[in-house]
């Protein structure tokens, strides 16, 4: 029996109506579970899927299932509890917007400016992200400060969590400069909407953001500033309207217009006056500090929960381990001997207090309790002053460089670094030199970066293995085939509404390259994708953040059509799965092109959007690739030309299924 539990649960329990309950499905607007629910004798499962509003127990506990909920109440009864905020604040925005200055001001409760000089030695620019504590309602609220430089965007998804209060910081002087060049709408997209996409596409249930407008002192008077502020807010409203219009067309009349809760109500004000703050007046005022702190207190109030004291003891144990970059899981279970304690670890990971990759076999044995150390590990490869940093690194090396069991001359090492900075191909010896047991062990750092899709490999080449970081490649790819006799099979993945952030496209390239580790393959990486030549078949992924598109293409001879088609389908499916696993509120749609049009190099090829025979697998937990579900695609099946061809051209025909892909022809 499946029952929907509502706020009237207590009355039903008192009446004994649910004594035979076996499966309980919690409604999405519920804030707490009645502990007496666990006393029901036949209860086997509590389904809290997407019930992010739960506070008691926290959703991060409830989603683990009935055993975790029981563990929470057991620990609460045995060790007592403490009321703590289970929400953090996320400060995000363009570089040099004033994010760190804002956090320091909130922390010290006085105006505190931070030195900013991207090229300077004493630059205080945030690298990757930093974590601070600010006092809100006599409690400490964790605040994540994300570096605004583009190189750090690729690591944002490492710690963004669903229990968070978004704070978007906009440098209004920067807005004026961008709007003069690109117009108000594009400036608003660059400075606000693109940063909102980092948060809301991965965490669609986040509440409305606070908007902080900085550098007020760069305007000569109130009228000029207020006019600029009005232009920005108007541009944001127009962008959101455009987004909802696209999604409405996509959803074809479904009442709920957006996956993102914030945009579900078409007439809702995304940035009400109470959520907009201005800093940088010429007078050294701290008024804005207390205004923002007061607003944070109101926003955090619903997210205070009772956490078992035993779980806090785990955090104290972590805090004492300041001399190591991670703690072995075996050491934690030795100190706190019970597999049930994994419930607390999962909870701490989900709220962003630790990083634990439970489902990554190479990382499951490590708990990363010091996120600042993880930041340092990432910044060794991704830094806003990468060229200077790598130059300094090479200069500091001895004439003979040792890494593991190998030693190479400094001049050769310098060439390997130069190749990496141009091509994105990093030699194994570079990683072994950068990561060592004193900072972050190489054999842990590499699977960590791979788990975040920041690099792919290893590719076992001679004399050493190499890895690929597409972000650094300076090459560019196009979709033209090198061989006139090859057919082109192409799928475009387009995004409607709120598009994934720009770094998502770089990570997708890593997802595409992950299966290709054979050193015999010819792999070429590019800033906008990658290409792999395996025999006569050439596959490529090319992406464009401007067009909000990822193109998957395979160039193939006709006699390899079946295997090429399967490869195309599996590659597309792996990309869709990856998008769904992180950017859950994105709207990817697939467009399939007529292969004959592509062969003719037509600028407007015929296509079919969402053909009924193909849909990405509905569950990311299902590992069965679509190629295993397809029948054989015959290469000699009824060859035809398309309507874009002239009857007398005499050009190559294609199998009918590739002109108009449809179920009946496969």
Description:
By secondary structure, the chain is an alpha+beta fold. The chain has four domains: 1-79, no CATH class; 85-303, Rossmann fold (3-Layer(aba) Sandwich); 385-472, no CATH class; 487-665. The chain contains 20 helices and 28 strands. Strand 9 (210-214), helix 8 (222-251) and strand 10 form a beta-alpha-beta unit. It is globular. The relative contact order is 0.08. Residues 1-9 have low confidence and may be disordered.
Features:
single chain; 666 residues; alpha+beta; Rossmann fold; 4 domains; seven-stranded antiparallel β-sheet; six-stranded mixed β-sheet; 20 helices; 28 strands; 20% strand; disordered N terminus
CATH class of the largest domain: Alpha Beta
What is the second-level CATH architecture of the largest domain? Answer: 3-Layer(aba) Sandwich
Number of strands: 28
- Give the CA-based shape: globular
Q: Helix coverage percent of residues?
A: 25-40%
Our count of domains comes out at 4
Radius of gyration: 27 Å
Percent of sequence in beta strands: 15-25%
Number of helices: 20
Averaging pLDDT over every residue, what do you get?
A: 81
As laid out across the biggest beta sheet, the strand order is 21-22-23-24-20-25-26
């Amino acid at each position: 029996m499946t029952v929907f539990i509502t706020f009237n649960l207590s009355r039903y329990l008192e009446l004994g109506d649910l004594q035979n309950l076996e499966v309980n499905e919690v409604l999405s607007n519920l804030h707490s579970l009645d502990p007496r629910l666990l006393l029901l004798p036949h209860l086997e499962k509590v389904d809290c899927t997407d019930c992010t509003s739960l506070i008691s127990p926290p959703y991060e506990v409830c989603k683990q299932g009935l055993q975790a909920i029981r563990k929470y109440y057991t620990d609460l009864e045995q060790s007592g509890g403490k009321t703590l905020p289970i929400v953090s604040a996320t400060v995000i925005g363009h570089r040099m917007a004033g994010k760190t200055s804002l956090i320091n001001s909130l922390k010290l409760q006085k105006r505190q400016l931070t030195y900013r000089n991207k090229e300077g030695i004493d630059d205080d620019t945030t690298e990757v992200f930093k974590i601070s504590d600010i006092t809100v309602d006599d409690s400490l609220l964790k605040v994540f400060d994300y570096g605004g430089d583009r190189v750090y965007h690729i690591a944002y998804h490492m710690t963004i969590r669903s229990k968070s209060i978004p704070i978007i910081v906009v440098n209004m002087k920067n807005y004026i400069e961008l709007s003069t060049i690109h117009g108000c709408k594009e400036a608003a997209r660059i400075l606000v909407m693109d940063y909102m996409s980092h948060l809301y596409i991965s965490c669609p249930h986040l509440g409305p953001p606070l908007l902080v407008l900085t550098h007020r002192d760069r305007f000569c008077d109130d009228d000029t500033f207020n006019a600029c502020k009005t232009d920005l807010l108007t541009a944001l409203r127009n962008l959101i309207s455009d987004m909802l219009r696209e999604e409405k067309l996509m959803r074809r009349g479904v009442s709920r217009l957006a996956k993102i809760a914030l945009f579900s109500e078409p007439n809702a004000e995304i940035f009400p006056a109470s959520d907009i703050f201005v800093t940088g007046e010429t007078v050294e005022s701290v008024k804005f500090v207390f205004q923002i702190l007061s607003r944070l207190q109101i926003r955090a109030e619903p997210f205070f929960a009772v956490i078992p004291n035993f779980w806090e003891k785990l955090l104290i144990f972590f805090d004492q381990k300041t001399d190591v970059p991670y703690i072995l899981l075996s050491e934690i279970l030795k100190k706190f001997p019970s597999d049930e304690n994994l419930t607390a670890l999962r909870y701490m990971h989900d709220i962003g207090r630790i990083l634990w990759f439970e489902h990554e076999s190479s990382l499951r044995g490590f708990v990363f309790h010091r996120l600042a150390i993880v930041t340092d590990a990432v910044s060794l490869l991704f830094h806003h002053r990468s060229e200077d940093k790598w130059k300094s690194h090479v200069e500091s090396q001895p004439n003979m460089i040792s890494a593991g069991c190998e030693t190479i001359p400094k001049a050769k090492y310098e060439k390997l670094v130069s190749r990496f900075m141009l091509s994105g191909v990093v030699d194994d010896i570079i990683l072994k030199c950068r990561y060592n047991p004193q900072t972050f062990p190489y054999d842990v750092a590499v699977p960590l970066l791979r788990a975040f899709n920041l690099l792919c490999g290893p590719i076992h080449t001679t004399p050493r293995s190499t890895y690929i970081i597409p972000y650094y490649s300076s090459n560019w790819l196009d979709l033209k085939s090198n061989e006139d006799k090859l057919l082109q099979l192409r799928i475009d993945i387009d995004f409607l509404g709120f598009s994934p952030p720009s770094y998502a496209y770089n990570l997708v390239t890593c997802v595409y390259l992950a299966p290709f580790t054979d050193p015999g393959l010819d792999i070429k990486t590019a800033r906008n994708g990658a290409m792999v030549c395996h025999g006569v078949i050439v596959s490529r992924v090319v992406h464009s953040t401007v067009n909000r598109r990822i193109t998957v293409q395979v160039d193939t001879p006709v006699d390899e059509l079946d295997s090429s088609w399967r490869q195309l389908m599996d590659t597309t499916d792996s990309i869709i799965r990856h998008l769904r696993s992180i950017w859950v509120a994105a709207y990817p749609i697939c467009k399939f092109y007529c292969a004959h049009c592509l062969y003719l190099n037509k600028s407007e090829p015929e296509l079919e959007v969402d053909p009924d025979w193909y849909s990405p697998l509905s569950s990311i937990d299902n590992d069965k690739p679509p190629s295993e579900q397809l029948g054989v695609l015959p290469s000699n099946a009824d060859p035809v030309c398309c309507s874009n061809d002239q009857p007398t051209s005499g050009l190559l025909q294609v199998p009918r299924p590739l002109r108009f892909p449809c179920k009946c022809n496969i």
